Request: fold
Amino acid sequence: MTHAELDKSPTDVAAMFDDIAGRYDLVNDVLSLGQDRLWRRATVGAVDAFSGELVLDLAAGTGTSSESFTGKGARVIACDFSQGMLRVGAERRGGASRRGVTFVAGDALALPFADETFDAVTISFGLRNVQDVEQALGELRRVTKIGGRLVICEFSHIPVGVIDTLYRGYLMAALPKIARVFTDNTGAYEYLSESIMDWPDQAALAATIQSAGWSQVAWRNLSMGVVALHRGHRRA
Ligand SMILES: C[S@@+](CC[C@H](N)C(=O)[O-])C[C@H]1O[C@@H](n2cnc3c(N)ncnc32)[C@H](O)[C@@H]1O
Reply:
């Protein structure tokens, strides 16, 4: 069973997601106690895509994060480098291009799109898994139109010490055990816990987004900071 380490080797990350693709969405719902649906709704609200717009959902996986952006008539490119995740997404929808969502294979570090293609770019639970976060943020900026927007939905840190300690206990002790009920690849869920704890806090991520050239960077916490939604704009 392949799983990634904190060096986030792209080959290992892609193989790990290929491996868990079949039960990925089910396990998400279980491990987040259904909170993932609230996080996705908040992300859709922040992206606020409307008719005529083109949205890039990067690291889209099976496309669960993608289809909700089409609600007001926007078209979505769901891009990911795991063939397994893309295959499950396309099989579930009866094709690689359905109901406003088109699956495209691509690497966040070298996106297969022209400069200034998208009105909005977004990435849910993907940025933590890329090997070079600044490069991915730079690629996202390159493919965004001037005036376009960025929304990042990612696990983060709870600013209240005692609650954070309890949450870390859940991540390290309970989460991998629960995951074991649903998947053979327990290493993938140990990586999930470790990569969340290793991830920069809200302010540090905001600083990285800014240094990648994004303007008006701001964030808000969801579920007390278990997840944070970061936003930015391309000004030039
Ligand atoms: C945790 S899943 C998130 C999937 C989806 N966005 C969601 O919210 O359910 C992370 C995804 O990031 C993808 N990913 C990681 N690194 C990537 C890269 N460098 N380029 C493209 N996709 C990448 C993985 O293949 C995986 O499908």
